Amino acid sequence: MRFLKVHQIQDVAVLVDKYQMADRFTFAGGYWLRQGQTLTTGSIWGLMTAAYLLKLPRTLYYYSNLLVAKKEVTLTKYAFQMPDRMLGLKFCS
Predict the structure, then answer these.
(1) pLDDT tens by residue, 1-27
(2) What pLDDT score does 84 carry?
(3) Residue 28 to residues 13, 78, 88: CA-CA distances in angstroms?
(4) What is the DSSP string of 1-21?
(5) How far is 20 from 13, CA to CA, in rounded Å?
(6) What phi-psi label fits residue 56: left (phi over 0), alpha (psi between -120 and 50 degrees) or beta?
(7) Burial per residue of 27-50, b for 16 or more beta-carbon CB atoms within 10 angstroms, e otherwise
(8) How does pLDDT run across 53-89, given as a tens digit for each residue?
(9) Helix and strand tally (H, E) in the chain?
């Protein structure tokens, strides 16, 4: 599980949140969500939601700032693609 794609990271984060294992995935989540890569808006959205679900506040702050600075399209399309649409809509506001 060294090189995961964004959607795979997001899927793992959903499971981690569902079974309340965020504290056990702190180091792995930090590695998966490392910064410094060039990303699309959709990738930033996925990594931001994964950071929220993995309870990584600094990483969440980083990706949410990137998303605000890069805001090219409406974010509601990403919100409706999430398993938890209410959480996605909270991120949009």
Answers:
(1) 567 888 899 999 999 999 999 999 999
(2) 83
(3) 11, 24, 23
(4) --S--HHHHHHHHHHHHHTT-
(5) 10
(6) beta
(7) ebbeebbeeeeebebebbbbbbbb
(8) 999 999 999 999 998 888 777 888 888 988 888 988 9
(9) 6, 0
Where do we find the tokens 């090219």? 72
pLDDT of the residue at 81:
87
The conformation of residue 22, written as its DSSP 8-state character, comes to: G
Rounded to whole angstroms, the Cα distance separating 43 from 5 reads 9
Contact 41, 67 (CB under 8 A): yes
Neighbours of 52 (CB within 10 A): 19
pLDDT at 91: 85
Q: What is the CA radius of gyration of the chain?
A: 12
For residue 79, give the 3-state DSSP assignment.
helix
Q: Are 47 and 64 in contact (CB under 8 A)?
A: no
